[in-house]
Amino acid sequence: MTTPIGIHDLAFATGSRVLDLSVIAVRLGTEIEKYTIGIGQERMSIPAADEDIVTMGAAAAKQIIDRHGAEGIRTVLFATETGIDQSKAAGVYVHQLLELPTTCRVVELKQACYSATAALQFATALVVCDPRQRVLVIASDVARYELGSSGEPTQGAGAVAMLVAADPDLVVIEPGSGVFTSDIMDFWRPNGRVTALVDGKYSIRAYLQAVENAWNDYSAQGGFPISEFNRFCYHQPFTKMASKAHRHLIKTAGGDLDPAVLDAQIAPTLKYNRVIGNTYTASIYLALLSLLDSDEELDETKIGFLSYGSGSVAEFFAGTVQPGYRKHLRSEENRSVLAARVPIDASEYLTWHERRDPTELGDFALPNETPGPFRLAGFTDLKRDYAVTQ
Ligand code: HMG
To answer: How far is it, in rounded angstroms, from Cα 92 to Cα 130?
Structure first.
């Protein structure tokens, strides 16, 4: 019998500020129902001035290291669409902030919102080779679109960290997956831009097409039949996209299209994303956390995961929730983190939106704002200076 491998621990962090989408609706003269019902979003997390993908990723990973220590971690995989350097991997800063052993490899992965799933699969493969090893996977992103663009209400910020190990406490990742790649331009962010460019309607069609193809490949590879899955986690640029994708998947796979059944299969996965917004690479694993933190009893539940990253790459794979998983969650703390975010108004939101990293050599200090354990203190000659706050 092969050793089961999967997600041993899962933690998240997000921007410490929060914007109610009514602020954007008022500015754009849009009915709020377009957001709350039409795309299924209520609020979005916004990073404070001294928060970024590194501080969020490190804050998520710290919870894992505090609980399990660093023993066996010889690899850190950092997935992001919002990289902060063309050369240096963001995970190297996290490695230093968490004081991980030097006997470690650290690398960054990119493919829009998909790369955290590549990281998870690479991590499971490393643990297959040596089940004593544990791999720290971090997914962290800040989603920013142009003001007034169709994507503006779908911004957000957040990170998840996963400890991938043998005999995991939370979710076994089942062998086998369905994959799909297609060179398209539905969403992209050329070098030098902090805001993404997107062909919104086309991106929805492309996502649905990728769902279909990834599932078809999963079936061709001999995966579980659709009837064996009870819950589904999707990449969620906005929660209504998960509903669209789910209906499309079940239609493709020949499952039960009763709207009440479809809703029950994904509703608990939507709660966190609805109030955090798009977190790109982290989004599908935030959906998993939302599901695990829900009131449902999920022992032995088979979950279907559909990961999509524009451009585009998609993957369908299966996970099985482990008996007793509840003992290993941080549900109350997670809800407290969301509730503790500081609401910002229209002018603070616009200030955040205009924020750019410095482009000139010299010293640049950032205000001390974050309540989190790490902060981006500033820049010295375009080098990022991170600090431990607690
Ligand atoms: P839009 O074009 O402004 O909105 O932006 P719309 O007119 O299509 O309306 C959206 C929905 O709201 C529609 O429902 C309307 O009927 C409804 P649907 O037909 O879709 O079911 N609606 C209302 N409902 C209730 N009351 C009202 C009302 N008014 C309208 N008063 C769009 C929508 C998604 C295009 C936009 O938000 C966008 O461009 N978002 C960014 C792109 C995106 O998220 N794409 C998703 C697929 S690609 C992906 O997931 C990858 C990504 O995360 C990037 C990565 O991989 O790195 C983006």
So the answer is: 23
201 vs 198, 204, 294, CA distance in Å?
9, 5, 31
pTM of the model: 0.98
- Give yes or no: 81 in active site: yes
- Locate tokens 């290291």: which residue? 65
Residue 235 is among the residues annotated as catalytic for this protein: yes
How many Å apart are CA 330 and CA 9, to the nearest integer?
Answer: 10
Identify the residues whose C-beta falls under 6 Å from ligand 1: 31, 33-34, 37-39, 81, 112-113, 150-151, 154, 186-187, 198, 200-201, 203-204, 207, 235, 237-238, 241, 278, 280, 308-310
Asked if omega into 331 is within 30° of 0 (cis), the reply is no
Q: What is the pLDDT along the chain (390 residues), one digit of tens a residue?
A: 589 999 999 999 999 999 999 999 999 999 999 999 999 999 999 999 999 999 999 999 999 999 999 999 999 999 999 999 999 999 999 999 999 999 999 999 999 999 999 999 999 999 999 999 999 999 999 999 999 999 999 999 999 999 999 999 999 999 999 999 999 999 999 998 999 999 999 999 999 999 999 999 999 999 999 999 999 999 999 999 999 999 999 999 999 999 999 999 999 999 999 999 999 999 999 999 999 999 999 999 999 999 999 999 999 999 999 999 999 999 999 999 999 999 999 999 999 999 999 999 999 999 999 999 999 999 999 999 999 997
Distance in angstroms (rounded) separating the CA atoms of residues 82 and 280: 9
